[in-house]
Input
Amino acid sequence: MDLRVQHASVTDIDTPLLVVNLFEGVSQPQGATGAVDQALSGQISQLIADGEITGEPATITVIHTNGSTGHTGLKAKRVAVVGLGKSTDSEQERFEHARVAAATAARKARDLKVDSFATVVHAAGAGGLPLDTAARATMEASILALYRYQHFKEATRLPDPVTSCTIVEADPERAAQLERYAQVAQVTCEAVMKVRDLSVGPGNYVTPTYLADTAREVANKHGLEIIVWGKDELKAHGMNAILAVNAGSVQPPAFVAMKYTATGATKTLAVVGKGITFDSGGISIKPAESMEYMRHDMTGAATVIGFMDLAAATKLPVNVLGVFAATENLPSGSSYKPGDVFKAYNGKTMEIVNTDAEGRVILSDSLAYAAEQMPDAIIDFATLTGACQVALGDHATGLMSNNQELADRVLAAGERSGDRCWQLPLWKVYGEQIKTAMADVRNTGGRRAGAITAALFLKEFVGDIPWVHLDIAGTAYADSDQTYVAPYNPKPGATGVGVRLLWHFCQDWR
Ligand code: BES
Ligand code: MN
Ligand code: ZN
Output
């Protein structure tokens, strides 16, 4: 879908669907909604008085303006009023409600089978959200709400009915700003949707080799440095942890490191991702129920690929090193087993207690490699623990860190981007749970504090580099059969979480 900005008054826009908005509790709309209400001879305020339009989040009311009513003051054929929640809600909540409003409107446009729609920027009126925040919310959610994954719908593929969305702004200066935001929003959403495509793609299609090929494509597109290692190189470099998880699979593993070099940058960020293209649990096999979701277990690696693409496309002011290891985790006669001991890339040894705790195993080599490059910070993304999904549900990514200043920056970027994070402690005492007589560390710490003990395992491999671990087990996908789904995260449910978080983090990290 094409995003456009038009400098015009809302009443002058010729469109099949014009979207305006309303906060809860407002009986006489002002601004753009007020202007439309006037052109409709008070039809909106009447519907508010009748209780049909409430302003509640995720609500939408469509008014047909042509034909019988014969309004002349308005060029739009239909008007939709979306709810923004309460104007007294926190900025965070108003931002989220703006995203939900935009997504609700875009989906309505699709349902109405109109080929285009126009919308005001949501929640940016007097005393509202800053224009850039509100614009991003409106633009990104409009695009992301209409995402579909049709790769394997050979017989039933649907054309995209909505081909353009026009942002209407009456003020010339603000319209000019919106033009710039629209360009960023468009490339950002392309990166997010690339992550969604990879994340949701079936395990027999998105293999480790496929991920490596996709990384190569991105590198070639932007002229980035890239290394791709297979089994032989992994052996030669002592990446025994990745090889251990790969041992039960007939799909070759891939280790990828790629670098975007910014002109005049002083800092380097390493982004590391978990790339398990299917997680059966291995010898410690998972129950069959919901196992198909474990095709998403490479979302961290997808985030790395999508973000490298975005970093280069938007010429971010920091260097970015992207690292991931990709493999399946399957049971077979050659699989790694509970009780096995392996030595990782940095020389530390680990005892395997549960082969289903494989993410931290492949991340050990990946993080140690990233740390060796001496970046200024490491941020890793991993669908790491069911414990984190249970603790925070679908709406917050678990954040754990060895450096509070870095953690605070990532938390702040989470608020600005909408990819919200919530911190869990890495107190030393939790480390008792991953001690073992057999090796330097063991790969599980029991049921209690599972997200934290997983992170403490990872901490063994980052050395002194400031590091943030993001457990996206709950936020990587949202399936409407299982969870609450925000309208900007349509089926089949991959969210593309993390790309926008990183982009915002890099904006003011100097
Ligand atoms: N990929 C899973 C974690 C996961 C679970 C992600 C649910 C998304 C949704 C991970 O590899 C895993 O199996 N973790 C185990 C660890 C345990 C064996 C210590 C878990 O969380 O049960
Ligand atoms: Mn697992
Ligand atoms: Zn896993």
Notes: The chain has a mean pLDDT of 97.
